[in-house]
Amino acid sequence: MLVQIVAVLCVLGLAIGQILFKASATSLAQTGSFFAFKTASTLIAAMTLYAITSIAWVWVLQKVELGRVYPLMALAFILVPLGSHFVFGERFQPQYFAGVALIVIGIVVAVKS
Asked: Are 40 and 94 in contact (CB under 8 A)?
């Protein structure tokens, strides 16, 4: 059970990392410099989160077969757009919800197999 929780936390960490990468890209567009505090701090936070998540993912892979846990990574395709909606106000097309439904069905089928 702990392994699955850590695996889901890894996916969540990667999704948050993507939001932080977008925030640093937005800041870079505004400031024009990687050395501006906001740009540098969000970029470093994203990279640090990715590093921690990668180490945790290696631990997960020690405990579980890759084929059994990797389908959880598809959750990022749901979490990142949701995060971008709430953080950046990005909008969804109606097809997005159909895609999310297919992803969720695929995850359930793959994890249950």
From this structure: no
- Per-residue CA distances from 31 to 17, 43, 47, 83 (Å): 21, 14, 20, 23
**For the chain, how many structural domains are there in total?**
1
Q: Which domain holds residue 69?
A: 2-112
The distance in angstroms from the start CA to the end CA of the chain is 17
**DSSP class per residue in 1-51:** -HHHHHHHHHHHHHHHHHHHHHHHHHHHHHHS-TTSHHHHHHHHHHHHHHH
Q: Which residues contact 79 (CB under 8 A, 6 or more apart)?
A: 11, 12, 15
Q: What is the pLDDT of residues 48-83, one digit of tens each?
A: 999 999 999 999 999 999 988 898 898 998 899 999
pLDDT in tens, 9-22: 999 999 999 999 99
